[in-house]
Write a structure and sequence with these properties.
Bound molecules: coenzyme A
Helix content: 25-40%
Structural class: alpha/beta
Radius of gyration: 19 Å
Order of helices and strands: EHEHHEHEHHHHEEEEHEHHHHEE
Shape: globular
Number of strands: 11
Length: 388
């Protein structure tokens, strides 16, 4: 296997983007990443695109063909990858595997979702749960994560204030991110007193419904300096599966897929959690950000709320989490999220993250969850290759 480098990244603005179409979003992100990478058009061997549900959101299937055609890439192969909200990270992983194996030399891995064109996104998102046992019984994603939050509060004494603190940090970080959907500060009081969505989760405990796209260009590490002076290297790429339905879990306050994927990722990179300078984690709801911090090993089980309220996850804290603003405040266009997480880590490791920069960042991690944990992908990136 070859080491793999990231030589170009881009992300569109996330938000309710009425002036953009599905195809214009992915073309904007893909072509901007290609421009950032300095590759020539005929260097590109393949493209992988993460997308959860173009059929339900924009009534378009066969999107790989649409995208290659609209971006002017024909006859380069383009492939859609789907794993609900983890679709983007799986598209990234497919690109990494293709380059690492030597099958391709230069690929684009991208993600896109245009969610705001439907009147109600909730039923479409719910197709990522177990339809027979969850969605058809009335469960939605906010309600599933609300049950997880209730159990975490019961087991560990986590409070609504601690959940609100997670959202406050996210919005603060997003206020320094020009691509974020919600680039404004909030207070704990504002979060606690916002509309209740699914008890105990208020509006500010939820990621929004978003439009957006992101893209990354990968090549063999040995070729990276042909294109850029600041390649960022893939140190680990891991994926794991967990039960799709909550009722099949021994413990709903732990995502086994996160634990499994992260332990394998630390081993692959030859690192421990203490070596991670920043992480972009899957906070589709504030409680899931707290589970991520625990399951990735940043703190003891049950202490996620405490360390957030202590300020340890701020960009100047002991282990900065979601300097981009995360899904909560950067936005969460499902298929684009995993790629946007990786793009943020690349900007951080290049030292290009402006006011949200984590000082001296050398190694960053992404954790991207599909559904309530049926899929999890963990990637580790660094300024130096593994040399394996
Ligand atoms: N955080 C902060 N503000 C939000 C928000 C969020 N998550 N969602 C919407 N808003 C804001 C809007 O910008 C709007 O503000 P404005 O009045 O100043 O323009 C206001 O709240 C109302 O927006 P609206 O679109 O009517 O909200 P809604 O009530 O239809 O939707 C949620 C709110 C929380 C239900 C919706 O964002 C949601 O379903 N989120 C979860 C998405 C999800 O499940 N993703 C998959 C996770 S696995």
């Amino acid at each position: 296997m070859r080491d793999v480098a990231i030589i170009g990244v881009s992300q569109t603005k996330f938000g309710e983007l009425w002036d953009a179409s599905f195809r214009s979003l992915i073309a904007d992100a893909g072509l901007s990443a290609i421009e950032d990478s300095n590759i020539a058009g005929d260097d590109l061997d393949a493209m992988y695109v993460g997308n959860m549900s173009s059929g339900l959101f924009v009534n378009q299937e066969h999107i790989a063909s649409l995208i290659a055609d609209h971006m002017g890439l024909n006859p380069i192969p383009c492939t859609r990858v789907e794993a609900a909200c983890a679709s983007g990270s799986l598209a990234l992983r497919q690109g990494i595997l293709a380059v690492a194996s030597g099958y391709h030399d230069v690929v684009v891995s991208a993600g896109v979702e245009k969610m705001t064109d439907v009147v109600d996104a909730t039923p479409a998102i719910a197709t990522a749960s177990d339809i027979e046992w969850e969605a058809q019984q009335g469960a939605t994603f906010p309600s599933l994560y609300a049950m997880i939050a209730k159990r975490h509060m019961h087991e560990y004494g986590t409070t609504r204030e601690q959940l609100a603190e997670f959202a406050v940090v996210a919005h603060h970080n997003a206020s320094h991110n020009p691509r974020a959907q919600f680039p404004f500060e909030i207070t704990v009081d504002k979060a606690l007193n916002a509309t209740m969505v699914a008890d105990p989760l208020t509006l500010f405990d939820c990621s929004p419904v978003s439009d957006g796209a992101a893209a990354i260009v990968l090549c063999a590490a040995e070729d990276a300096h042909k294109y850029t002076d600041t390649p960022i290297y893939v140190k680990a790429s891991q994926q794991a599966s967990g039960t799709i339905a909550l009722h099949d879990r021994k413990d709903v306050t732990t995502l086994d897929a996160t634990k499994y994927a992260s332990q394998k990722a630390y081993k692959q990179a030859g690192l421990s959690v203490k070596d991670i300078d920043l992480a972009e984690v899957h906070d589709c709801f504030s409680i899931n950000g707290i589970l991520a911090i625990e399951d990735l090993g940043f703190c003891e089980k049950g202490q996620g709320g405490v360390v957030v309220a202590d300020g340890q996850t701020r960009t100047d804290g002991d282990f900065p989490i979601n300097p981009s603003g995360g899904l909560k405040a950067r936005g969460h266009p499902l298929g684009a999220t995993g790629i946007a997480q990786a793009a943020e880590v690349v900007w951080q490791l290049r030292g290009d993250a402006g006011k949200r920069q984590v000082e001296g960042a050398e190694v960053g991690l992404t954790q991207n969850v599909g559904g309530t944990g049926g899929t999890c992908a963990v990637h580790i990136f660094g300024r130096e290759p593994n040399n394996n």
